[in-house]
Specification:
This is Histidine ammonia-lyase. This protein has helices at 18-25, 35-52, 78-89, 99-113, 122-133, 152-162, 178-184, 196-201, 205-235, 245-248, 254-267, 271-274, 289-292, 294-316, 340-368, 391-407, 429-459, 468-477, 489-501, 503-512; strands at residues 9-11, 31-33, 93-96, 137-138, 141-143, 167-169, 175-177, 324-325, 331-332. With 516 residues, the protein is mostly helical.
Length: 516
């Protein structure tokens, strides 16, 4: 349901930010059109109207689409042409896509329409904005987009709702016909004119929306990964010496330095760490890679995320349509709808997630093995043999990591021809976005299990005191004291939800201030 009390995000000539997309799609902020955008939309529509009666065929205005682009369509059938385009392309199948994803793709299509580069009528844009702000979410389904020409099927389901057809969820999540939902909020369904059907469906908005949402999630999850790693280093009697800034300056990747700084802050003031700082009392020279190299892995993930942010920002500054109305008033065909730039980084991030989660699971496993956990009981069990401790929690993490490795297989290399070979190379960016969302969820769960395990390991080091940040995290996690086996699934679900919400990071930042 849209948040009527939130300040509206202005959509117009200037690009949206990733934070704008998250605020609108995930947190329900309304949107408003800038006056400058309205003037540009009116100007470009006049150009399309001027071409509608031209004897020379113009793609998307007086011709068919895709492989049928050579067929000229008479004026009397132009409205039917636009309706048929949208209805036939709304061919999605499978489960409904999440509300925040649909809101993101609607917002991003509105943003492109508002640039004045697509040639739609002002009233069409106004209707789209009104439907969006009324909290109406078209029923978009899992399968249907090849990521080229853009996310055709998902966007067609949205355009179909503007015409009063298809199914939607209203602001309260009630499933109903689009016509009924529009009537309930006083919106008149659209009859599309020349070029408008194509303008409404020809963009990379779905995959870009999923990228923006994943970026928001991963900014927080990579900080969480630093915190869980630090807690594991602490509980496994590891050293923080390897996180010294002068060591990371020797390999000046910015993400690595940022991660190492988080680890230093998280371990500062740890009585557990101080208990074995004397080299004469501690004979171990080096920690295992999953502890020692966490800044290198998490840092590489951060730098990959930074590249994804660059791509997202460029896409948010783009006007993706075909044909497009150029700034000097020409209507030109182009290939900007191809999703490759977004599809690649969606795949990159899935690879990153699999590796960060894999390292997290290895730290979890070390806590459970008496050969490697430096004096803790087997599986952190209260009465080993009678109790299994966290044995199967690690199985759960391992199963998720295995799934994440499968999800890391790139979608963007899996082109398949369509439209009678006219669209003979596609990006599969929508599929990349779908699997990335599942991967983000998996990472949060793996990190949650590491936090549960590391917290128990730290608790078992008593009376040694943890760092202030670790103490704050354990308090936020609200875990029982170590003891006999208990029903773990609800605990894992609750902690995973805390991770996803960002509350673990907030607990740490309440002690140390902002983290990287």
């Amino acid at each position: 349901m849209s948040n009527e009390h939130a300040e509206a995000v202005e959509v117009g000539i200037g690009p949206l930010s990733i934070d704008d997309v998250v605020a609108v799609a995930r947190h329900g902020c309304p949107i408003a059109l800038s006056q400058q955008s309205r003037a540009e939309v009116e100007k470009s529509r006049a150009i399309i109207d001027g071409l509608a009666n031209d004897t020379v065929p113009h793609y998307g205005i007086s011709t068919g689409f895709g492989a049928l682009a050579t067929k000229h369509i008479p004026v009397s059938k132009r409205q039917q042409l636009q309706r048929s385009l949208v209805a036939s392309h709304a061919a999605g199948s499978g489960p409904l896509v999440e509300r925040e994803v649909v809101r993101a793709l609607m917002l991003l299509r509105i943003s492109t329409l508002a640039t004045g580069r697509t040639g739609i009528r002002p009233q069409t844009l106004d209707t789209y904005v009104a439907m969006f702000n009324a909290g109406i979410v078209p029923c978009v389904r899992e399968y249907g987009s090849l990521g080229c020409s853009g996310d055709l099927a998902p966007l067609s389901h949205c355009a179909l709702a503007l015409m009063g057809e298809g199914e939607v969820l209203d602001a309260y999540g009630t499933l109903m016909g689009a016509g009924e939902a529009l009537r309930a909020v006083g919106i008149q369904p659209l009859v599309l004119q020349e070029k408008e059907g194509l303008a409404l469906i020809n963009g990379t908005d779905g995959m870009l929306g999923m990228l923006c949402l994943a970026i928001d999630d991963l900014r927080m999850l990579l900080t969480t990964a630093d915190l869980s790693a630090a807690m594991s280093v602490e509980g496994l009697l590891g050293t923080d010496d390897v996180f010294a800034p002068e060591l990371h300056a020797l390999r000046p990747h910015p993400g690595q330095s940022a991660s190492a700084e988080n680890l230093r802050k998280a371990l500062a003031g740890s009585g557990i760490r101080e208990s074995h700082r004397d080299p004469e009392a501690c004979t171990r020279v080096q920690d295992a890679y999953s502890l020692r190299c966490s800044p290198q892995v998490h840092g590489a993930a951060r730098d990959t995320l930074a590249h994804a942010i660059t791509v997202a920002d460029r896409e948010l500054a783009s006007a993706v349509d075909n044909p497009v109305v150029t700034l000097d008033g020409r209507v030109e065909s182009n290939g900007n709808f191809h999703g490759a730039p977004v599809a690649y980084v969606l795949d990159f991030l899935a690879i990153v997630i699999a590796d960060v989660a894999s390292m997290s699971e290895r730290r979890t496993d070390r806590f459970l093995d008496v050969a490697r956990n430096h004096g803790l009981p087997p599986f952190l069990a209260d009465d080993p043999g009678v109790d299994s401790g966290l044995m199967i929690a690690q199985y759960t993490a391992a199963g998720i990591v295995s799934e994440l490795k499968r999800l890391a297989s790139p979608a963007s290399v899996d082109s398949i021809p369509s439209s009678a070979m006219q669209e003979d190379h596609v990006s599969m960016g929508w599929a990349g976005g779908r699997k990335l969302r599942r991967a983000v969820d998996g990472l949060a769960r793996v990190l949650g299990i590491e936090l549960i395990t590391a917290a128990r390991g730290v608790q078992l080091r008593a009376p040694l005191e943890p760092s202030p940040i670790t103490a704050a995290l354990i308090e936020q996690l609200d875990l029982p004291e170590p003891g006999p086996d208990r029903y773990l699934s609800p605990e894992i679900e609750r902690v995973s939800a805390l991770v996803t919400s960002g509350m673990a990071v907030q607990a740490a930042e309440s002690v140390t201030g902002p983290l990287n």
